[in-house]
């Protein structure tokens, strides 16, 4: 896959397919953050969850198995983390 194909697939995952199935990533990751916070005994937020999931994908990549889905999901988690941690959600990259 090309980089644009990976990014387009990630966009579909985080904005369309999985959102229809699981609801918004913001709500889902906030719920997960509350659960993880309870388990760990200290607070984490939704952006932390996105980064943790990205790290899981990177960990899987180190296994030597090349699965395109890992790259698509990694791009999606990075986009979600970026959105959750930036003040400007207007869509401008500047």
């Amino acid at each position: 896959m090309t980089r644009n194909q990976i990014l387009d697939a990630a966009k579909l995952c985080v904005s369309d397919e999985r959102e229809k199935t699981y609801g918004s990533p913001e709500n889902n990751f906030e719920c997960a953050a509350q659960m993880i916070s309870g388990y760990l005994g200290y607070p984490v937020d939704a952006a932390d969850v996105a980064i943790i999931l990205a790290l899981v994908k990177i960990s899987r990549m180190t296994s030597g198995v090349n699965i395109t889905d890992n790259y698509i999901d990694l791009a999606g988690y990075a986009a979600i983390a970026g959105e959750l941690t930036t003040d400007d959600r207007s869509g401008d990259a500047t």
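DSSP finds four helices and no strands in the chain. The chain has a mean pLDDT of 89.
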